[in-house]
Amino acid sequence: xxxxQLLSFGAVAALLPAVxxxxxxxxxxxxxxxxxxxxxxxxxxxxxxxxWPKGKMPGAAGVTAKEEWILRNPKDGNPNDTAATHVTDxxxxxxxxxxxxxxxxxxxxxxxxxxxxVSRAGGGxxxxxxxxxxxxxxxxxxxxxxxWGSAQLAPLQDAQRAIRLIRHNAAKYGIxxxxxxxxxxxxxxxxxxxxxxxxxxxxxxxxxxxxTQSARPLVTGMFYPVMTMLAPYAHGGSVKSMFPxxxxxxxxxxxxxxxxLPKDMPPTFLAHAxxxxxxxxENSLILYQALRAQxxxxxxxxxxxxxxxxxxxDYTTPWMAFAKRHGLWG
Length: 330
Known about the structure:
Layout: E1 4-5, E2 23-24, E3 47-50, E4 68-71, E5 82-85, E6 91-95, E7 104-108, E8 115-117, H1 124-131, E9 135-139, H2 154-168, H3 170-173, E10 180-185, H4 187-197, E11 220-223, H5 236-242, H6 249-253, E12 268-273, H7 282-293, E13 298-303, H8 316-325
Helix pairs in contact: 2-4
């Protein structure tokens, strides 16, 4: 599930230039290999900052995991094509807009909750968005199988804290705090949806002024998302990573998005391929039906072909139009 087709943006309301689709990774099509990036990456080339102040991360006591960034294709791979494993210091990487238009996107990569598949150097998707004026924050997040005291809630805590930090620092980045969207891919799509339905849920004790901010996104984009943790449509790898010691159906329901949608769920866009053999398209279909039942603004695109990653499909043009219609861009 590591290889992804990600966003290639068409011109939508003159927001973005037309670009060519390309196979890519979980948080955006990769940049071309850069010889200045060593084969053993050290620090993220993109500007970044920690999500949690030192010593304030919830559930960290007793965790012995050691974070490592790896090349996803070490034999002949692009040195920008990396992933973070055993995340212990979740960060936000910032792709600043040259001329901010006030909009911001929290981008959540996938990786089956086994790792976070994201380029340390940034990707083509966030670059195109930033070039068009949107500030992009790409997050890494803790993984449930690393025995955090907060267990399954660790990635959700990170996502809540991330959007609050973006809102708290809006003036610094030229952002309108009321125009912050979230978009996620595969397991990152699950986390984007989880954040969107749990923005009002207290998952950790507030630690500073940033935690007075709302965690609600303006609009949500979920692309070939993991959604349910229940058979028969659950992605087995994500379930195993979320519950390394096994779980009852009742426990799985608590992190299955279809059961806990609030009435004020953000407008939600879904895209999937019917031939996705990794995460069945029923994940998006079930969530779409649940959103429609409660009259949440939603849009669903199921493509005949594309596999896990929607390779070759232009699903971003309708997503951009949906986000614009719901206020992300003026």
